[in-house]
Amino acid sequence: MIAARPRRTTHLAGTALAALFLTFASSTWAADFQLDNVKIDLGKLVINAPKIAVKGSTLEKDAFLALFTGTGESAAGRAAKLNAAEISAPELSLVQTVGDQKQTTTYRDIRLTDIREGKVGRGESASASITADGATTGPMKGELKRTTFDAFDLRQITRVLTEKAAPGTNEAMLPIIGNFEQDGYNLDMGKAGKMSLGRTTARGFAAKVGPEPLLEVMSRLAAASEEVERKQGDKTADADKSPTKTEAERQLGLSVLSLFDMFEYGSGEARDLVMTVNPPPKTTAKGDAVDMRIARMAFGENTSAKSGFVMEGFQFRSGEAKGGIDSIGYSGFAFASVIRELRAALAEPDKPIDEFDFRRFIPTLGTIRLAGISIDAPAIITGKEPVKISLGTFEIKAGEQLNGIPTSLALTIDKLVTPVSEATGNPAAKDMIAMGIRTLDLSAKLDLAWEAAKNEIAIRTLSFGSAGLAQIEASGTLGNVTKDLFASDLALAQVAALGATARNLQVKLQNFGLVEKLVENEARKSKRKVEDVRQQFTMVASLGLAAILGPSDGAKSVAAAAARFVAKPGTLTVSASAKSATGLGLADVITMTEPTEIFEKIDLKADAQ
Known about the structure:
- The chain has 13 helices and 28 strands.
- By secondary structure, the chain is α+β, with helices and mostly antiparallel strands.
- Strand 22 and strand 23 (456-466) form a beta hairpin.
- Helix 5 crosses helix 6 and helix 10 packs across helix 11.
- The protein is elongated and about 105 Å long.
């Protein structure tokens, strides 16, 4: 959401009258003053400002300063009294301590304007610098360029940090910042590497007061993290499983889950992320640094799907290895159902783990898409060419879910190009290389959906193939598929699966050169003529299949079509449908004494062109 600014009346008389009322209501005239050597100590966060200039405040100097140092009124109540035409400071520093690391961020040329009841109309900082040092991280330093924002609700942020909602109430989500712009920054992480980021924009951040103050939750999380670090290496540390401790851990888990409901992140994008990450020192060998670049990252309305997240123009290099991804993103993905089930699980701490239906912990999957992937790696065998792998498109789209299971699924893999390497020692790889197949250009597709009205699963498309070789396509229908297949009761779902029937199936095999290569390869290995090998394969397809499948008309149709396909490779089509209107079920197959009996239960047709 974008926070809306209050409308200004077009009537001058009305504006003047409103201003007059505000003036008398505040019981004071607007004041201008300067604060020197301001220091606000919040424990692990200390704010310092050598000089702050205030213009148009509705409070006198001492009362204004009391808003930040007072203790008698709530922090949100004091923030609501912050009114001024302008607050500026040549310099302001934030000193933050996290663990053993101390970080100082110094903002320069700060200017806040149009401040009313704790809401900042607009704010900006010309630049800033960052310094940090710690026993584990070492020294770091960086520079931030111009930063601006508008519609910044200090009162709401203060409430989220320090207050909690009344029991049984659900507070409204309110905007905390309208628009945010940051022109870029760079960070020198010392031995760890370097990082820089270009222009960043965001809008529509919102938050609400949760069941616990955010500062308390963060403090408890920090304490829990420190306890984990303290227990590392102590084998007896987990011996304390007292009811009091277990209950405290459960409450902490519930508190963390509440954070997911407290924020909405709106939309935004960041451009030109550049990173160099150095490996940690090694005693035996020196690792290569990793260079990474990301042209653009976006979320919410700034993505092509108008939701979710997308990353574009990703590139990396480390030594001789390099690669990239044109784009990777998701939309429609949501954790709400997972959070709900986790809360339910924590509410029943004594419930045995085997009684949980873990399918309910599957998030809403939505759509995941990757495009333009390429990887160049060093040669597996010394003296050979580097390994190159690429992927045109990968996309998976899940439809409406029942108990976590998608009722429809679409998967696309397009132009997955991978080398055929003899380094694997696989005989099939050696045969492909002998046939001149040095790379595989693979594609696959799956599209299926459960149709509730018909109690069917329609397999619309199932295909797999390689360019220049062959492709197989299939489609079909499964009947008697009821809603019980998606039931949370696993036994009931298994019964539903066993009751499904096959109603029809169509298979199409297209040859784009694979059959000819197989025949030529066999002729080369057996030192025979290609035509002699082809005739042999044709005879095997005709007589061999006829002997295996039996004398039924359907079996004869398949054998004849297969023989024609081998003799003149093109397209082989096979279709089968159950003679029974209910389809062919598992019980029908189990009761067969001979495999060929299946031809008595299905209508089979085949053709080769």
